[in-house]
Amino acid sequence: MWEYTEKVKDLFLKPRNVGEIENADAVGEVGSIVCGDALKLFLKVDRETGRIIDAKFQTFGCASAIASSSALTEIVRGKTLEEALKVTNKDIAEFLGGLPDEKMHCSVMGREALEAAIANYRGEAVPLHKEGRTVCKCFDVTEEKIRKVAIENHLTTVDEITNFTKAGGGCGECKGDIEEILRDIWSVKLPEKTAKPKKLTNLQKIALIQDIIENEIRPGLQADNGDAELIDVEGDRVIIALRGMCTGCVMSDVTVRGIQEKLRELVSGGITVEAQK
Amino acid sequence: MSNSIYLDNNATTRVAPEVIEAMLPYLRDLYGNPSSMHTFGGQLHRKVEDARAQVASLINANPEEIIFTSCGTEGDNTALMSSVESQPRKKHVITTRVEHPAVLNFCHHLGRKGFRVTYIPVDSQGHLDLDALTKAVDDDTAAVSVMYANNETGVVFPVEGIGEMLRQRGVVFHTDAVQAAGKIPLDVTKLPVDLLTLSGHKIHAPKGVGALYVRKGTRFSPYIIGGHQEKGRRAGTENVASIIGLGKAAELAAKQLRNEAPFLISLRDRLENALLKTCPDVRINGDRTTRLPNTTNLSFEYVEGEAILLRLNEFNVCASSGSACTSGSLEPSHVLRAMGVPFTAVHGSIRFSLSRYNTEEEIDRVIEIMPPVIRELRSLSPFGRDKMSRLP
């Protein structure tokens, strides 16, 4: 069960500002029933002062989606549109006394609905991050949205991006893309990786691989009545043969991967290990 | 929380008072190790064997065909691992798209290890595509694993027919009977399965104990390796008190099975029929005619499952949902998705699963609580039959 704050529970059980505004001056609609949450925000705006005089919502979603929507309406009531545009997803989360990490996307949805409603009021194209490349196909999340949310909330890991945007939370195929986007955003600020080790000659490399297999890998395998032998090295391709109990063992793929890991760590990051069939 | 209305018995069950009584001496005074030479410990060996006979009797097996485990997941993992390890040349495994994660994720794991895995689909009623299963079997197939009854919908698979087909083809057959055991009769003398998984906490024994049935003559390779316990088939000092509890729970289940099923069916149907009448836009997930007696899975359109559960929680009503927000990931129930249940209905799915401890009064209380909960949440939702937002 999620650990919701009292404020979230309160706004979920007794949500404020529920419903539609007839003849609303602005409507913002985000999310979809397919994704599991959707929010429709209605605003009544004083044309002269540009102040939001009423805000209501309808939400399909979990407790935190409903509470976030209700919080959003409470926050923007009485604000001018300019002030409202400065409201961030963090403000919504803070109003609620915090949200569980996995539920941060609910606050992002609130912020998006607000942007959409204000754009609707101003007759602008809805900035629904529909432009640009779709990174996460399961939840229809674009690169632009990932970049924006990452920068605004200082997100540095794929898990954080998933918590805030849902991207990567479905089939997971786009996790590599997300990682690349994050690397691109933060690469300038991250400290340089440790200097590359000096390049080995082919002979040195083969000798090093031989040495590692002999002293670090074979003793472990032999303890399980298995064994491995170095057959050949072609560039970064290392070909080995599994012997003894390793032959035909269901875990042999793991063994090969383990050897690869070791060689990547100690010799060169590009090494691939193949077992001779 | 004694005033809770607990309708989540496919998740876990209340430990039967008789089971607790049976276990207490083994927690308090009889703490010995059954493997010891002295009487203080050694005498417990007999008690463990008595429990083994009780568990065997629930499924009409021989006691020596029962191995005690730590849980259903261990039983499922052991069955699959043992099947592939004892037939090292075979590199194909068949299962279904609606298995419990204990089987499904283990099969994904085998897939990553280079095994070919076939996942058999189900239809909209939750029935298995038996043609696809028959066609998937080949000479390379090491094992087939098909659950006896689905934990989310309660739909029961034709394990007997599948087993007969597989026996003719000489393929090892495992069934995860964690949800079926104690709810419907199981008889391994009639059921052509080689391995069958049971779990304690689904049948009113405590968590942390289960059993794996291994038919005599089935090639077996242990998953947990160490001491000689369980005749070398499952190492680790016996969880004596819980094993005694599992034995008692199995005995109770066997004794009460015939009376309990009609009772559960009457309560379940009472709940289901009332909600179908009082809540518009509700559907039942899974074939109503081939289900476990205690389970119903209902979809309330236009509302989200976590919201329903937390509103029910305010009334101390405990149930489950297949919605994304309750799955621990962002994906909704793989079972309902495999059945082709539309997203609109998956997110609003609620499972009620009953036990012998539920009463008619409790069911009537839920029948009373549910309609306003659904009505209120629908009034919050932008979707609906007569709302402006149309469904995609």
Quick overview:
By secondary structure, chain A is α+β, with helices and mostly antiparallel strands. In chain A, 43% of the residues lie in helices and 19% in strands.
Task: Tell me about this structure.
- The complex is a heterodimer of chains A (277) and B (392).
- Chain A has helices spanning 6-13, 63-76, 81-85, 89-95, 104-121, 143-153, 158-165, 175-186, 202-223, 252-266, and strands spanning 26-32, 37-46, 51-60, 134-136, 141-142, 226-234, 237-244, 272-275.
- Chain A has 277 residues and is of the alpha+beta class.
- Chain A has three domains: 6-121, Sufe protein. Chain: A (Alpha-Beta Complex); 134-186, Arc Repressor Mutant, subunit A (Orthogonal Bundle), CATH 1.10.10.1100; 202-275, Fe-S cluster assembly (FSCA) (GMP Synthetase, Chain A, domain 3, 2-Layer Sandwich).
- In chain A, the strands form three sheets. A three-stranded antiparallel β-sheet of chain A has the order 1-2-3. Chain A has a three-stranded mixed β-sheet with strand order 6-7-8, covered by helices on one side. A two-stranded antiparallel sheet of chain A has the order 4-5.
- In chain A, a hairpin with a 2-residue loop joins strand 6 (226-234) and strand 7.
- In chain A, helix 5 crosses helix 7.
- Chain A is elongated.
- The two termini of chain A are 49 Å apart.
- In chain B, helix 7 (240-278) crosses helix 11 and helix 8 packs across helix 11 (360-380).
- Chain B starts with a strand and ends in a 12-residue tail after the last helix.
- Helices cover 39% and strands 14% of the residues of chain B.
- Chain B has two domains: 5-11 and 257-375, Aspartate Aminotransferase, domain 1; 17-253, Type I PLP-dependent aspartate aminotransferase-like (Major domain) (Aspartate Aminotransferase, domain 2, 3-Layer(aba) Sandwich).
- The model of chain B has no long low-confidence stretch (mean pLDDT 95).
- Chain B contains eleven helices and 13 strands.
- With 392 residues, chain B is an alpha/beta fold.
- At the A-B interface, strand 2, strand 3 and helix 2 of A face helix 8 of B.
